[in-house]
TrEMBL record:
Signal peptide: none annotated. NCBIfam families: aroD. The lineage of its organism: Eukaryota, Fungi, Dikarya, Ascomycota, Pezizomycotina. This is Pentafunctional AROM polypeptide. InterPro entries: Aldolase_TIM, DHquinase_I, MurA_subfamily. It comes from the Eukaryota.
Length: 762
């Protein structure tokens, strides 16, 4: 019987080279540490890490101890290793693989507990401050929020009984109306179009809670505004998802001008969970060379440009001269000015250096809104010790006002990496999982720590002009190192279904190559009923994408996510890892939800009517679940009657009279078969924009076409002509591929990168 041990801190068992063999096949070790001893009679699976004089060599050799109570030596399996190179011997616990079919399915939960809590309605009046001639943005904001709007000449005239959630006010009228107005029930957003080269007045920016810079020349204006509003109003919280990932990385853009990064930004971002904007490395062309700090005007334009071209969260960093940056340290208020403005601009992560006065760090934490604070500490002396009391003090001080503590030190020995792992384990044991600790060593000797760190590891890319710090690795190099150490074993992944139904398999293989993942991906036909069971029970099985999806009640899938159970379909099989059972998942509903929230905040759908057309309930179930997660109101069905767990609240259209009873749906979804796809067109025309809507109201309308294959007619074209915001199946496929890769290999591939390749893939 094998014993599965909890993770414990690896510790040296042999540290004196005189005990190491020269030509023997065994390594003498002292008694096994008490923390690693299992109950009598049980064997234990361990990894034997042999630390070499050459720090680039670090193999992990699996060893089984049948009698751990009396350890005199360890037999090393045959391998091509020069034993004279050993420096020390370490034990790392290794969890024995369990049968993926040995788990029992989780019990089904009521539908209300399965679907995540719908996004909350805005609790404050959103006041949009605009310049003369730019009042159109007020209506755009209202459409994105799905709320009525109006304009006022003074904040004091805001009507208590008004149903307008969005209120516009001229910038010239704002100054005189701030005094005496209530601040707790409104959010002031200064909006400014930069197309004429202007920039907001500092006093106006300071008087508002947030600020949105935009260009009407950009095709990404609407989506950029949606992302901004979603974050500052708490509609989306990207950190909530990232903090639960097993591993997160971020790419640092070291360009003096973001324009230079745009052609390759999609490729640069593969494997990254966030993008760092190194503000101190930006070079403002309008400033003197003697002034190393770019102007706020230039930084704001660069941030706007970066956010328009990536859906990844942004880390806003102002690095000082002492910590390998360019911001002068003699003016801490300069840091506050830029970091405070970044919060106003709706940046997801704010990097705050620990040396800044506590008063400034506290003010930033108090005013952060929905931004996440990363405390940053760097030591370039080369004498830093992770085992010193100073390291613990630095963490405690950093944790006061931060959600993530980042500690980075220059080291000169490979042993410093193991000291760091000891420190990391101690912090987790004494302080718990939060705040998150991101700790790495700089320099060539510290590269091992970059592979072992799992929280926001800074990575580089060959296409960047320079690395942001000594010893930085690419995402591919980190994956290669993890594979060599046995932390990223090779798995066999599968695309199950006909080649035509699994076209993303070719794209996924390219992603594996780009990220240097050791896995293989094989496309196979569905085959007989029991063929899937034969695949998923293979010891090397690493997961599968299944198209068309299989039933969630498939007997050979031991556990099913609650979403997949409610939808009734499994399109992704996640392999058993780290004590979790083999799991059936549904990625399609997340792809649909991500598509629907590109141009509207999630709460815009709350309580609104929806119509779904489909030939069967199974074809529509993922869309129903996605809409329910957005809190939609009544859902009307055409072409099918629901009887499964999602049937509650669905109302079938039975006649033309039924159509007339629905005044205006907010969203129409078509999952009709290709030969019947044109049947949705009369509905799109019937609910076309009438032009009779009064100025204070807004009626957003979304059409989502999920039909696969060659259609009859052009429903998307008809929808666009009728005033709908329309999305096709390609958008959903791209978002679903993003989610599938996250589930199968834990790596992030940006939507824009997937979409860029869609002409060749989907």
């Amino acid at each position: 019987m094998s014993l599965s041990l909890p993770p414990v801190l690896c510790r040296p068992l042999v540290s004196n080279p005189r005990f190491l063999p020269v030509s023997s096949d065994s390594v003498p070790v002292p008694d096994l540490p008490r923390a690693l001893r299992p109950p009598g009679g049980q064997s234990i699976c361990l990894n034997l890490a042999l630390i070499f004089s050459d720090p680039t060599l670090l193999p992990l050799i699996p060893v089984r101890l049948e009698s751990p109570e009396n350890v005199g030596g360890l037999a090393i399996p045959p391998c091509d290793i020069d034993h004279t190179a050993y420096r020390s011997c370490w034990f790392l616990p290794s969890t024995p693989p369990q049968s993926p079919l040995s788990r029992t399915p989780s019990a089904a939960l009521p539908l209300a507990s399965v679907i995540q809590t719908p996004p909350p309605e805005p609790t404050h009046t959103v006041v949009i401050v605009y310049r003369a001639g730019q009042d159109a943005i007020v209506q755009v904001v209202a459409e994105i929020l799905g709320k009525p709007w109006t304009t006022e000449t003074s904040l004091s005239t805001l009507r208590k009984g008004s149903n307008a959630v969005v209120v516009g006010i001229l910038a010239d009228d704002l100054a005189g109306s701030l005094e005496g107005s209530e601040k707790t029930d409104r959010v002031l957003i200064n909006t400014h179009c930069v197309d004429d080269g202007s920039f907001p007045e500092e006093s106006l920016s300071d008087s508002c809670n947030y600020e949105f810079l935009y260009s009407l020349r950009s095709p990404f204006f609407r989506r950029d505004l949606t992302r901004f509003l979603s974050l500052i109003l708490g509609q989306t919280r990207p950190h909530e998802d990232l903090k639960t990932k097993n591993r997160t990385n971020f790419i640092s853009t070291t360009f003096p001008d973001v324009h230079a990064a745009l052609p390759n930004l999609d490729i640069l971002s593969v494997g990254s969970d966030a993008v760092e904007l190194r503000v101190d490395l930006l070079v403002d062309p309008l400033q003197q060379a003697s002034d190393p700090v770019p102007s706020l005007r230039y930084v704001g334009q660069q941030l706007m440009l970066l956010r328009q071209h990536t859906e990844l969260p942004i880390i806003f960093t102002t690095r000082c001269t002492k910590e390998n940056g360019k911001f002068p340290m003699d003016d801490p208020n300069l840091f506050y000015k830029y970091l405070r403005r970044a919060i106003q601009w709706g940046v997801e992560y704010i990097d705050v250096e620990l040396w800044l006065p506590e008063e400034i760090r506290k003010r930033l934490a108090d005013d952060r809104g929905h931004s996440i604070i990363m405390s940053a500490f760097h030591d370039f002396s080369g004498t830093w010790k992770w085992t010193s009391p100073e390291a613990t003090r630095i963490f405690a001080e950093s944790a006061k006002y931060a959600d993530i503590v980042k500690m980075i030190a220059m080291v000169n020995t490979v042993e410093a990496n193991y000291e760091l792992e000891y420190f990391r384990s101690t912090i987790k044991e004494t302080c718990g999982p939060y705040p998150l600790l991101s700790a790495v060593n700089m320099g060539q000797m510290g590269q091992l720590s970059r592979a072992l760190n799992t929280v926001f590891s800074p990575i580089t890319h060959p296409l960047l002009p320079m690395i942001a710090a000594p010893g930085q690795l690419t995402a591919a190099e980190i994956n290669e190192a993890l594979h060599i150490m046995g932390q990223l074993p090779k798995h066999d992944l599968y695309a199950i279904g006909s080649f035509r139904s699994t076209p993303q398999s070719m794209f996924m293989e390219k992603c594996f190559n780009e990220l240097s993942l050791p896995h293989t991906l094989t496309s196979i036909d569905r085959g007989p009923t029991n063929s899937i069971e034969r695949v998923i029970t293979q010891p090397s099985f690493g997961g599968a994408s299944v198209h068309p999806p299989i039933s969630s009640s498939t007997a050979c899938i031991p556990a099913v996510s609650e979403a997949a159970r409610a939808i009734g379909l499994i399109d992704t099989i996640v392999a058993a890892r780290e004590g979790s059972p083999l799991m059936g998942e549904n990625a399609t509903w997340k792809g649909i939800r991500a598509t629907l929230t590109r141009d509207y905040v999630p709460s815009a759908y709350r309580g609104r009517a929806a119509i779904i057309l489909s030939g069967s309930e199974s074809e529509a179930s993922a869309a129903i679940f996605a809409l329910r997660s957005l809190g939609v109101g009544a859902i009307y069905t055409v072409g099918f009657r629901a009887s499964g767990p999602l049937a509650e609240g669905l109302e079938p259209f039975t006649s033309i009279q039924s159509v007339k009873l629905v005044e205006q749906p907010f969203v129409i979804v078509s999952a009709l078969p290709p030969e019947k796809s044109l049947l949705v067109q009369p509905l799109l025309r019937h609910y076309r924009t009438s032009g009779r809507a009064s100025p204070p109201s807004t009626r957003g309308k979304v059409y989502l076409d999920l039909t696969r294959g060659e259609r009859t007619g052009d429903p998307v074209g008809v929808a666009v002509q009728a005033g709908w915001t329309a999305y096709g199946i390609d958008d959903v496929n791209a978002w679903t591929t993003v989610e599938t890769l996250r589930l199968l290999v834990g790596q992030n591939v940006p939507f824009d990168f997937v979409r860029m390749a869609s002409g060749r893939v989907f």
